[in-house]
Amino acid sequence: MKTFIIGTLALGLTVASCDVLNAVTDELLTVPTSTALTNDEVIKGLKEALNVGIKNSVNLTSVTDGFLKNENIRLPFPQDALKVKEKALELGLDQQVEKFETTLNRAAEEATKEALPIFVNAITNMTVQDGFSILNGGNGAATQFLKDNTSSQLTEAFLPKVEAAIQTVKLTEYWNPLATKYNQLMTFTGGDKVTTDLTAYVTERAIDGLFFMVEKEENKIRQDPTARVTDILVKVFGSVRN
Q1: E strand map for the chain
Q2: Which of 91, 132, 154, 158 is deepest in the core (most CB within 10 A)?
Q3: Is the dihedral of CA 118, 222, 56, 140 positive or negative?
Q4: What's the number of domains the chain is made of?
């Protein structure tokens, strides 16, 4: 009888000890393993992510076919000039249309070579008051913040680069014959002539394409730990649950 009582007590103590250990383990698992991030660290991490994203994006887009062969950012025939394309195809100018569309993208690819310092400068001067909300804002939040706060400055700085690129790839040499032929026809039919601003078109689409690629790179850093190539990226984005 005494042996039975002792055994029962021992079993009870063992079970109680396991319960205590489990409780302690659970408590330890709920304690944060990383120190709280400062706002400076968050801002530094966001800028680092955008710097990495921009460098990767420029490297991908500033090469031959960087825009042309990427269906997500490829520049199509200008929307306000589709009637020119349609009429040109009717006239059998297929090769000229194809060459023009190719050269549009060559202009974007050429201009993008000059984009890196412009974007880096924008990031360097970016002030983030709500760093934590951007960090926790989900995919594309940092890119959207950058876009909202720098697009006008980027456009102003980018325009002369695109103008130079258009001259380099001789874009207007492929556009003018198409537009001239179309406008001549409109003179006889009384239709509206086309006056597409190629510089504005390429500038807008090139910047949009870059931002698309930057967001893609940002989201990669958010979602894929192997894309966090610096300590600050590991610390900042490793603190966020995606």
Answers
A1: none
A2: 158
A3: negative
A4: 2
CB 46 within 8 A of CB 40: no
Residue 119 has pLDDT above 70, yes or no: yes
Is the CB of residue 233 less than 8 Å from the CB of residue 52? yes
Q: What is the pLDDT of residue 23?
A: 45
Residue 146 C-alpha from the chain's centroid: 10
Q: Which domain covers residue 13, as residue numbers?
A: 1-31
Whether residue 68 sits in one domain with residue 17:
no
Handedness of CA 184, 187, 189, 192 (dihedral sign): positive
Return the structure tokens found at 129. Answer: 């008051």
Cβ neighbours for 186, distance < 8 A, ≥ 6 positions apart:
192, 193
Give me the mean pLDDT over the 118-130 stretch. Answer: 74
Q: Which residues of 94-113 are buried (b: 16+ CB within 10 A; e: fewer)?
A: eebbeebbbbbbbbbbbbbe
Q: Would you call 77 helix, strand, or coil by DSSP? A: coil
Q: 51-67 burial, b for 16+ CB within 10 Å, e for fewer?
A: bbbbebbbebbbeeebb
Q: What is the pTM (predicted TM-score) of this model?
A: 0.75
